[in-house]
Design brief:
The chain is an all-alpha fold. The chain has one domain.
Length: 62
């Protein structure tokens, strides 16, 4: 199981997909949604909405 590079929390598949979508599709190190929100200076809710948007758009990462 993958863990967040910053805080060490166990990750869900959507968090791995979001890291790949927002940072680099070839990433091998991933971030939890809390740490991603902190990095991008946005809310976790916004990132969850983005996950749903990408999923509805047919993105294969989700």
């Amino acid at each position: 199981m993958s863990r967040c590079r910053k805080c060490g929390r166990e990750l869900e598949s959507d968090e791995i997909g979001l890291t790949k979508k927002l940072i680099n599709r070839g990433s091998t190190e991933f971030y939890c949604i809390t740490c991603l929100a902190e990095m991008f200076e946005c809310s976790e809710e916004l990132l969850r909405n983005k996950i749903e948007y990408f999923r509805r758009s047919g993105c294969s990462l989700f």
